[in-house]
Design a protein that fits this description.
Helices cover 7% and strands 18% of the residues. It is built from one helix and four strands, in the order ββαββ. It has one domain. By secondary structure, it is mainly β.
């Protein structure tokens, strides 16, 4: 089995603060991920956002909201590959840095999953 070569990507809020697309989710700040491609970086970055499965208020048992992540919206976030990064390319697909996750319903800080 060969080792997969991953890349380091930075996702940066790109839309203006007043952009109506932010009605879906408030800007979460910059996120750095290790991923396979730009599209994969958006999927990995969705882990930095709270999912309804992470908090007590669930839309229904077992229903995830990751598909609706603001990081997947090209109008809200731009993705740039970091050629000079302090993070190694070797390792699993993962969120490497992200702002504090907050529960939008209770405004309390939520636990970070998988962020080193």
């Amino acid at each position: 089995m060969t080792k997969e070569e991953l890349k380091i990507y930075r996702l940066v809020p790109d839309a203006a603060r007043g952009d109506p697309n932010w009605d879906l989710a408030a800007p979460a700040g910059e996120v750095v991920v290790r991923a396979r491609s730009v599209a994969d970086a958006r999927i990995v970055a969705a882990e930095a956002e709270l999912d309804f499965l992470d908090i007590p208020a669930k839309p229904a048992d077992g229903v995830s909201t990751r598909f609706a992540s603001a990081f997947r919206d090209e109008r809200l976030y731009r993705v740039a590959e970091e050629h000079e990064s302090p993070y190694p390319r070797e390792g699993p697909r993962a969120v490497l840095t992200a702002p504090e996750r907050r529960d939008p319903l209770s405004r309390a800080k939520a636990p970070r999953k998988g962020i080193k």
